Sequence to fold (231 residues):
Amino acid sequence: MHSDRPPNSLVLEGAVLALDVDGVTLDSSFDKNPHWMTVVSAKFDIDAHLLRTELFERSWPDVVRGRQPIEVALAEVINKMGWTVSVEEILECWFEADYFLDNEMIEAVIDWANQGARIVLATDQEHRRAEFLRSRLADVLPLSGFVYSGAIGYVKEEREFYPVADVEFGTSERVQSVVFVDDRIENIEVACRHGWRGFQFENQVSWRRDIDHLLQEATRGRLNRAGYSGD
Fold:
């Protein structure tokens, strides 16, 4: 994955591309690959789909905001279900089975970076998977910033997420330079009210052209009157 564009063609210098992880840089469609719960279930002979109710509906709001360690919440589920698998075994299998790069997006992001855009991640994650993703994605993308909910105590649906992210990204005085790509419209709407430019990624035909247009606007410092794109 590379770009044929000359390295000195920095037409997007000044723009900051903030990417969601699941559903944007990672393919969450499961059209070609099984859901990670299915993989965990088969490997350890358990029904990992019970985690939907036992973990994600009950403990996840605290876990993803960094209020409770994933190890503690997951251990409680394991004990309740009587599973013999360990916390670490589930986490390792989960993270690996859920890591499918969206190669078309990765290629486009590298091209935008070669044109001068800064690449950062803005994601809802707890600490353990955040570190896994930071390490893996740093091998394929030129990342200059990484903000996640478990570290700051807010998720992307909450307006408090964005001022903290701006401090980390160095964009507090130029919020309109940030183009935020996320697959959830709830997050896009909050980000746009904050002042970022937003694009809801649904793998639509025009996604690359539309994001490129927003990055050009961000470089020129023009206001996107529509607020967000992709709906």
About this structure: The chain has two domains: 16-29+101-229, 36-97. The chain has eleven helices and six strands. Residues 78 and 84 are 8 Å apart (CA to CA). The domain at 16-29+101-229 is CATH 3.40.50.1000 (Rossmann fold).
